[in-house]
Amino acid sequence: MADVDVPSMPTPAPSPSQPEHLPLSFTHHGTAHTLEFSPDSTVVDLSIKIHAELGIPAENQKFMITPKLGILKPPFSDPSLRLSTLLNKKVVLLAPLPSELSALSKPSSIARSPPGAPSIKPATPARYRDWRKVQDEATYTFHSILPLSYLPNPERSKRFLERLANDAGIKASMRKHKFSVGLLTEMNPAEHTTHESRTLGLNRNRGEVIELRLRTDSYDGYRDYKVIRKTLCHELAHNVFGEHDRNFWDLTKDIEKEVEANDWRSGGHALTNEEFYNPNDSGIEGEHMDGGGWTGGEFVLGAFSGATSSDNGIPAQGLSRRDAMAKAAEDRMKKQRETGRDGSGAS
Predict the structure, then answer these.
(1) pLDDT tens, the chain, 347 aa long
(2) Which segments carry the region annotation Disordered (predicted)?
């Protein structure tokens, strides 16, 4: 019998596995470069690595990506853009060479200072900017600040709230815990006040609104900044825990320590251990932080469903919450003028 050649069956190719590294190629001044990244890297990681590998700071970087994407530059409008989406696109880095950047920082060898003239120090390169921190601060922050316009000197209240929002310690703690607050506003002293106690702050719907008692009861002064900042630490903890349980107080203590440690004005150190965590005392007799995290119902900003009538008999149903608060403040001040400060009824 004649030999018959039996064709061998092709060996199936192994199934590709998930690559451990993602190579991204780009050109810079006509030179091709390839950098490796993890599969989940973003354009922010590309910018950081170019600074580390090529010595080009983020503020000098500009990327031309074709087709469709066009020009991208830090801080990116979409910092979550994955590098994996750029693999089939042409990426060109538009930036000066490191030698050109260093030449700009050196004094010119042609233009020399005349004898006796003061020497000119070479310009120092711009400090590296942490773009990831910039993006986090834009996300984990107070997205709106609003004083009560119907109370005296609202601009001063606005400056007070802005100082709290820009406090280095508060910003650092909000980034760490990823706290995002819709509205930071002030509390009307006429609200949440009885003969026995005063409420210093409120957190509504776990960060939808935080209210702080900035003013004294007579509206003519403002309370101590550190007391209000401590109240804000307390209210931020309500973003996570509504009840005043052990978990809540542990988080409050951590936030207060972080705020003090990152406060460069105080050198990053607390003066005493008593600065932190005393759930039974707000610093002034008869005052307490709040009654816990409030959610739903009449506590949602924009609706004052719990009111049926104002003090002078005018129906409050249908009024906005701010209008009802303003009416209550006007009624209270009117009564104070009629009765006099000594309660004798003299005007």
Answers:
(1) 555 555 555 555 544 555 578 898 999 888 899 999 988 999 999 999 998 888 889 888 999 898 888 888 888 888 889 988 888 899 999 888 877 766 655 554 445 556 666 666 666 666 667 778 888 888 899 999 999 998 888 999 999 999 999 999 999 999 999 999 999 999 888 876 666 667 889 999 988 999 999 998 777 789 999 999 999 999 999 999 989 999 999 999 999 999 999 886 655 444 334 333 334 434 444 555 666 655 543 333 333 333 333 333 333 333 444 455 555 566 666 666 666 554 444 33
(2) 1-25, 105-124, 310-347
* Catalytic residue of the set 20, 36, 186, 235: 235
Contact (Cβ atoms closer than 8 angstroms) between residue 141 and residue 181: yes
Do residues 189 and 213 make contact, with C-beta atoms less than 8 angstroms apart?
A: yes
Q: Look at residue 313 and tell me if it is in a domain.
A: no
**Would you call 243 a catalytic residue per the annotation?**
no
Domain boundary among 70, 85, 100: 100
- Beta carbons of 169 and 266 less than 8 angstroms apart: no
Please count the structural domains in the chain. 2
pTM beyond 0.70, yes or no: no
Q: Which domain holds residue 212?
A: 140-301
Look up the CATH number of the domain holding residue 79. 3.10.20.90
Who contacts 192 (Cβ-Cβ below 8 Å, separation ≥6)?
198, 199, 202
Please state, as a whole number, how many other Cβ atoms lie within 10 Å of the Cβ of residue 130. Answer: 12
Same-domain status, 158 and 270: yes
- Clarify whether residues 167 and 89 are in a common domain: no
